[in-house]
Amino acid sequence: MIQEPGRILHNTKVGSVYYRMGLACSGKYEEASPGQFVMIHAGEGVPLLPRPFSIHRLVMSGGRVTGIEILYKVVGIGTQKMSSTRKGDTIRVLGPLGSGFRVMDGVRRVFVIAGGIGVAPLFFLIERILAKGVDPRECHLFLGGKTSKDVLCHDDFDKMGVRIVLTTDDGSAGNQCLVTHPAEMAADKDPPDIIFACGPAGMLACVAQIAAKLNVLCQVSVETIMACGIGACMGCAVDGQDPDRYLHVCRDGPVFDSRLLKWGSIYS
User: Fold this and answer.
1) pTM summary value
2) Per the count of CB atoms within 10 A, which of 35, 67, 171, 193 is most buried?
3) Would residue 244 be called left, alpha or beta, if left means φ above 0 and alpha means ψ between -120 and 50 degrees?
């Protein structure tokens, strides 16, 4: 990992409260894995501490990695400040951090489940899945949001040729249901080799339950508040199945084998 000033390449509004930001960063990100994250500080003053953001995709130039993109939602003072930055501005970036998704050789049928802004690390992940030789028609993306305004990156995924099932809580786009509902029906009919998921804790708990029922491998990216991102503050602890130790999202995750987590405590 490295801390450096990241020069903003673009900061584009892609929805009512959503932005896609490109950052010129060092070649260190050539080693980044889908699911890893960066800590970003938008400038002096409030908020004092940086915030974590998943790596959405890598920025390429001349066949080399020259930066990263993040996809973020404006929810507080820090992200509001980020949304007001412009091309050419610089912000502090620390990364790549954490443990990412692991795409094993030999997988054929893959489910990817995204809830809201949980879609952020999954574009990078699906790029890696397809690079492993998985047929796009066997990569099933279940893309959900509260409303049509919260469904992101649909067109980008469509261009990749993956199969997309779209859901919204209010029925304003796709099927009106929780995103886990069609995923469970499809898994019951023809189980995947592996499930990847990122989204709210309740959604991840449901995905973990589906995977356990079918004895399917499952990796989940856990979203939580972080203060440092490197395991120093111990503020992102979650309960694991081992009663003798906590797991820390920044250091042990954010991507976990779903069987390692104690879902009752995380969901509550």
Assistant:
1) 0.95
2) 35
3) alpha
